[in-house]
Amino acid sequence: MKEINKKAPVMVTGATGYVAGWLVKLLLDNGFTVHAPIRNPNDKNKTQYLDKLAASAPGTLRYFEADLLREGSYDKAMQGCELVFHTASPFALKVKDAQRDLIDPAIEGTRNILNAVNKTASVKRVVLTSSVAAMYGDNKDLQQLPHHSITEEVWNTTSSVDHQPYSYSKTMAEKEAWKMQNQQQRWDLVVINPSLVMGPGISPEITSESFKIIKQLGDGTMKMGAPDYEIGLVDVRDVAQAHFAAGFTPTAKGRYIISGHNSGILEISKMLRDAFGDAYPFPTRKIPKFLLWLIGPLAGFPRKMISRNMGYPFRADNSKSIEGLGMSYRPAQESVVDFFSQMIEKEEVRS
């Protein structure tokens, strides 16, 4: 790929989002002009945190009105851009209609962005935010893999509309992106596949699935015990750095697992207890699987999800990101403690 012209504007979809906020900060701090298409550019509640960053950074921030599900609404924001970061995507594990609320918007949104890329002659590279969820559906899937570890070659084959629909939506959206990239020669595609993203948001109003987990560890929801559930963890600031590197490293190609640590819910609880002591009701033991089997459905965890995940180890191989993007990952403790500290400041949790 030819080098990206650093004087050209760069577009970031979902700029007010969790990962995108830190990416926008990086771009502004490095003097870029950032085109930020968002649903309502006049909503100061949404833009105030980015506005504050832009006010003290050498870069420039420009908002555009756009809707992920409206064909053609990104055309204007993309004009003159050589690099497009597509971070916007629906993320919710509990939805009424998975096809309508998760899968269709994820695919349609990806299609709309890439249709705009196809129409915009200046674009050379697209960096897409996907997820390790596009590589595996349940921890049990890893037992069939070499070294029981996910790598960039692996695709999720076990999720569906009815089982792990969020993971299915990420898989289908990423496959759509690769299909569209393969149909042309002008722009290349680099995909970032993070594990569970942790750490403070640029906006303290951010909520994410990881936010819910950390909050529940501290607010007493899990005081009887934490599920025996292993996950990958990565700091939100590292995910932003990975996007930045993927955009500006000419040799970057394909997919990159962005995951700093193989961890688990009880391990995260221990990190919080080490930092905050007994001030909060952090769980100190695992909840037995049979008990989770009984109460899980009441808490919104289907039994199939419990049986295919609890008690199975999780491993992700992050070596490609270290070698290809120069990644070095923050300690998990730093991410978790910074995250919880922001919740304390916002009074999301109380001692």
What series of H and E elements makes up the topology? EHEHEHEHEHEEHEHEEHHHHH
Looking across the biggest beta sheet, what order are the strands in? Answer: 3-2-1-4-5-6-9
Number of helices: 12
Largest sheet: 7 strands, parallel
- What is the radius of gyration? 20 Å
Q: For the terminal residues, how far apart are their CA atoms? A: 53 Å
Spatial shape? globular
Task: Give the amount of beta strand, in percent.
Answer: 5-15%
Describe this structure in words.
With 351 residues, this protein is an alpha/beta fold. It has a single domain (10-345), classed as NAD(P)-binding Rossmann-like Domain (Rossmann fold), CATH 3.40.50. Helix content is 39%, strand content 14%. The chain has helices at 18-29, 44-55, 75-78, 98-119, 165-182, 209-218, 236-248, 265-276, 289-295, 303-309, 319-325, 332-345; strands at residues 10-13, 33-38, 60-65, 83-86, 125-129, 188-194, 196-198, 230-235, 254-258, 261-264. The strands form 2 sheets. Strands 3-2-1-4-5-6-9 form a 7-stranded parallel β-sheet, sandwiched between helices. Strands 7-8-10 form a 3-stranded mixed β-sheet. Helix 6 (209-218) packs across helix 8, helix 6 crosses helix 12 and helix 8 (265-276) crosses helix 12. It is globular, with a radius of gyration of 20 Å. The protein starts with 9 loop residues before the first strand and ends in a 6-residue tail after the last helix.
In short:
Helix content is 39%, strand content 14%.
Features:
Rossmann fold; 12 helices; single chain; 3-stranded mixed beta sheet; 10 strands; 7-stranded parallel beta sheet; 351 residues; alpha/beta
